[in-house]
Amino acid sequence: MSIASMKKLSVIGLASEKEALMKSLMRLGVVEITTQEGKMTDEEWGKLVFQDGNESAVSEYEGRLMTVQQALDAFSKYGTEKNPLFQTRKPVSRSDFDNKLKEKEKIEAEAKEIASLSARILELNTEANKVEANKLALLPWKDYDIPLEVQGTKETEIALGVIPSAADIKELERDLKEKTERCVLEHINSDTEQHYLFILYLKSERNEIEEVFKLYGFTRSMFSDLKGSVASNIEAYDKRLSDIAEEKEKVIEEIKSHQDSREDIEYLHDSLIIERDQAAIRSRLLLTKKSFYLEGWVPKIAQEEVEKLLNDHGCYYEIESPSKDEDTPILLLNGKFSSPFEAITKLYALPNSREIDATPYFSLSYAIFFGMMLSDAAYGLILTIATFAVMKKFRLEGMAKQLINMFFYCGISTIFWGAMFGGFFGDMVAVIARTFFNSDIALKPLWFEPMQDPMRLLYFSFLLGGIHIFLGMALNAYLSIKDGRVLDAVFDIGLWYLLLIGLALLLVGVAAPLAKWMSIIGAVGILVTGGRHKKGIGKIIGGFTSLYGITGYLADVLSYSRLLALGLSTGVIGAVVNTMGSLAGGGVKGFIVFVIVFIIGHTYNMLINTLGSFVHSSRLEYVEFFGKFYEGGGEAFDPYSEKTKYIEILREDK
Amino acid sequence: MSIEVANLVFNGSYLAILGAAIAALAGIGSALGVGIAGEAASGVVAEDPKKFGQALILQALPGTQGIYGLLIAFIILQKIGMLGGSGLMDLSIPQGAYIFAASLPIGLIGIFSGHAQGKAAAAAIMLISKRPEEIAKGMVYTAMVETYAVLALLISFLMVNGVQI
A167 versus A613: which is more confidently predicted? Predict the structure, then answer.
């Protein structure tokens, strides 16, 4: 389990078989075909082969895909069908898939039409924005009633413009009058930013007027392409806006009328994706006149099937194991319980091919941490049922499936810890019994109630944390030994084990003499060996800095106190909600208040604490656990396959 | 008058309630933090409305300090009998002062860590605007800040829990 072992595949085949083989390989979907650009620069290869490829076909498919995607986007934007909570692929047999696409041209024409309708809506929106902006610019002038095309008379000129609202209109008028008596200023409108002014003056005195304008920051407003009064222009804009809205409505209706073809278009979309990928993969093949060459990766478990296929197509092939420090693509393979937790690994980073997949080592602790932090049996029950329902209802794949499955397990763990600590919607049972039935029944915890004995849970959290950290260190040692660095494992992990276990025993007061010697040997050992990779004085300093690393272990263990803190937080906030609900007392009225407060409060508490538990469990794994041994940085295995979006084409059973 | 005021202030029950109030001040940090993250989230969602859910998750992260403050305030109130039917207990001045002191860690650290976590959350929101697939990393960076609020919550809780009444 964990990382799938990969084999390196090289194939030479007849050019006449190329297309058929590539098609079958795609359907099989287990071979990652690697790019061969490196070979083209190699002199010997360069003489023999040339690169296959058909870029123009790829870009043609891309273009068509874009149109089809636009049509589908238009449906999800304007259609009446509800978009489902999770997008899932519909399973369809290959013959059904091919049948659906018999009238491909017709479907594509329809998709084109819908895409152009959707483009029309965009155009209309842009125009509406423009008209709206024009209208907004005109609005302050709505009381100005001289037609806008009138810019003066033979002798006079009109200036329409704005000055900043900080400027004083009276002063401007006075200054203007000082220059010349023969001008008129009218104040049209004001808003928070500027004053809107109309000024009439003689053309011959324009220069004098302009001087004053400059002084006051007067900016002319231009309406050169408008005719008629402002009011009539605004009216025209309004009319245009309503026309646009009407046309948009019509276009949307038309898009809706095509809704029945949505599925056909989805089929088309996926078939285009397949064809595009078939065209695109060709750039990874090398050709001679009569043959082709490809290289790739195949997981060991799929080797037989691939061999059979290659034999069927009469290819010559070689399958070999990669050399030790060669980077292989990473495919995670885990058991039923662990595989959902791959999501957490992937969210961090895939392991590189020299290390191990951490997933099986942290799945259980992740579920435990999550459960302890949410620690409410009722919330756990809701989480379990909800995720189970989603799993049954939707055919999820990939990351979404893993996350939902993971929350299912985490929900079960939450039920367990909720029962251990006696949390069921906080202390709902006790509060209801007290408020409405005057009895003192309460849900008894199977283990103990953290509120009554927090120190006990705190120590338990530290214990779990210690085990978790030790496991991480053990994996580090394992990796060192696997790599042939046995001494590193002994010095960097073994000595720390001695020291830490010794200290822990001293703290608890068990086996004191032995513990004392364990600690001393560990500490001295670390001091001596800590700087062994350094030179000169560094050897001594290195030992001290290594030993100083003990503060890191202390911080790591303390970090697990969040298990207690977040668990308490769920329980206490739940109790707060229940107490608030019960404040209205017993009786029918009290009951109604209780139900309302209960629903709102517990929904909020559950959501925020589920988020918190998810985040903090991840943090404990990422920082405290992964930090001990995990590097990450592998590339995901990306097989050449049918990467459809809406339809899953089922493999035919032979 | 001054004696009355002195009696009020140097009074165990009053000090304990003041402690509860200080614990609840942790909400200041959350309000600041959620606000900062919300501003960043709106900016990102303006570009791509589909990121609403992801941004909301990150925005919610600095909200926990307020909850921790509420939690300690609630425990204090329950301990001194202000919640539930028994009525406010008469506390001695040392008792009240202990509870007051116990409220300080979460009250103070809540404010600063909430604010700081809000900034980290805002940065994480910017991160998902470019790389939505890396949300987990943004969440972990943001959660690193919360550790200190968790520690403060824990110490306040243990202190309140330890005061004998």
Answer: A613
- Is A559 within 8 Å of B83 when comparing Cβ atoms? no
Maximum CA extent, chain A: 114
Asked whether this complex has an ipTM greater than 0.95, the answer is no
List the beta bridge partners of residue A424: A427
Of the candidates A178, A183, A230, A174, the residue with the CA atom closest to the CA atom of residue A202: A183
pLDDT, one tens digit per residue, over A144-195 is 888 888 888 888 888 888 989 888 888 888 888 888 888 888 888 888 888 9
Question: Domains of chain A: which residue ranges?
Answer: 149-222, 339-629
Nearest to B157 by CA among B109, B99, B95, B88: B99
For B128, the 3-state DSSP assignment is: helix
CA distance B80 to chain A (A): 15
- Class for domain A149-222, per CATH? alpha beta
Strand partners, A196: A162, A189
A294: left (phi over 0), alpha (psi -120 to 50) or beta: beta
Closest CA to A344 of A402, A398, A397: A402
Whose CA is closest to A201, among A224, A176, A223, A175? Answer: A176
pTM score above 0.90: no
Q: What CATH number is given for B2-162 in this structure?
A: 1.20.120.610
Angle between helices A169-179 and A206-216 (to 10 degrees): 150
Q: Quick check: B48 contacting A, CB < 8 Å?
A: no
